[in-house]
Amino acid sequence: MHIIASLSLTAGLVVAAASAPTYLLPALADGPLIPKIAPIPTVGPGLTRLLPPVYFCGESVPLHEEAVARRLVTALVRNTTENQALYLIRRRAAVFFPIIEPILARHHIPLDFKYLPLVESALKGMAVSPKGAVGYWQFMPATARELGLSIKPGNDERKNLIKSTNAACRYLRWLHTQLGSWTLAAAAYNNGIGALLSNIRRQQQHDYYYLRLNAETGKYLYRILAFKELFSNSGAYQHLIPEQMMAYLSEPLNPDAEPDEGEVLLPEVVLNEATQVAVSATAGEVLHPTPDQPEDIPLPNAADVFREGIKARLWEAGDVQRGKIWVFHLTRNGMADGRAVEEGDILYAVVEDIDPKTGKVYLRADKLYSTSEKYTYNLSLSAIDASTGRIGIKLPDVNQVKEGWILTWKTL
Questions:
Q1: What pTM was estimated for this model as a whole?
Q2: What span, in angstroms and rounded, lies between the C-alpha atoms of 349 and 383?
């Protein structure tokens, strides 16, 4: 995901406002770059004592760590250097949050994620990144299609607030299922789950706040937190936020005010209709795909999601009956159930179940023969659909099974 309207102005905190250099601020309306002076206040030792407790999706932000506190303050200060720009985003949020919030709630996604599209696109449906990500939630074309959005000339559903928000919820729910943390899910939304898991494996660290990530992802959650704190708890940061910005953050929003040049907000009738759809949609309508979408929505990089996941090629297939044994050969080195395995090792899998309602067969491996050690190990792996990350292989695929068929396996 790529940020369209970042309010970031510096690479770090400046020692004193008087010495602040001149920076180029990306205009929110995709206009020309305008030189601005970024007055950044001095931030000294003991910063953690100045900050209130902060949470993201119920997870406590470890502000007792000086480095974490500084990153949050940096994000807060950067976002408060352009009064008018932040005020316009606040206006958009007031319009769109009543539509986004009930959709998040119906998907059981924490409401803190309503601030994510502020970072991604400044809540502009027409936002386009240099790499081609589009819309409020900044989906690349392939990811959008895999999440069930239509991208056709004249009808790009990435620009549809309700449909794209539902798609983002499906993606966030899936990321949380794989990672077990909403904080890591937010990071994976920005950086991709494969890259994030690679960092987790290499660093043996599962906490976002202590992971060493690329610059954009390392700052990503702090940018979300900055919007949350500025829009919902700005009074706690009066010692950091300039007086003029505090006035903008506390100024009542006038929904009838004329939008500034280049600023287009939804007409009231459109807003009311969209809000009603979001509020009144049944759980089934929100949580399940439409008839023209697949039941199992494929998600990006699903085959690379699983720690200790392995791939194996079918060597000998038994009948499609419960209890039958199928034999696979591993296609590459990896880890299985905490054990190092090698290309060529033999995986013995049993047909554990066949579900005629879903049209799936469930394969479980309970033994692996190490060709180098000449020893058979007991282990527990399940075959997954690599396009969805879900256990179970569709029967139409199984009926066409032949030698050479490769499956992805994950630890139970």
A1: 0.58
A2: 9
Residue 228 is encoded by which pair of tokens? 């949350």
Distance CA 278, CA 123 (A): 17
Q: What is the sign, positive or negative, of the torsion defined by CA atoms of 330, 334, 338, 341?
A: positive
Taking a C-beta distance cutoff of 8 angstroms, is the pair 107, 32 a contact?
A: no
Find where tokens 């199992």 sit: 296
- Cβ atoms of 406 and 331 closer than 8 Å: yes
Q: What is the percent of the chain with per-residue pLDDT over 90, rounded to a whole number?
A: 24
Min mean pLDDT across 234-238, 250-254, 279-283, 292-296 is at 292-296
- Two structure tokens written together for 334: 């990896």
Q: pLDDT value at position 217? A: 93
For residues 88 and 43, the answer to whether their CB atoms sit within 8 Å is: no
Q: Which residue has the higher pLDDT, 146 or 1?
A: 146
CA dist 412 and 407 (Å) reads 15
Separation between Cα atoms, residue 193 and residue 175, nearest integer Å: 7
Question: Cα dist. 391→72, 133, 296, 398, 401 in Å?
Answer: 39, 30, 11, 14, 17
d(CA 223, CA 365): 44
- Evaluate whether 9 touches 22 at the Cβ level (below 8 Å): no
pLDDT, tens digit, 9 for 90 and up, residues 204-224: 988 999 999 999 999 999 999
List the structure tokens of 225.
């937190």
Closest to 193 (Cα-Cα) out of 392, 1, 341: 1
SS3 content of the chain, % helix, strand, coil (to 5): 40, 20, 40
Quickly tell me which residue has 């352009």 as its tokens: 82
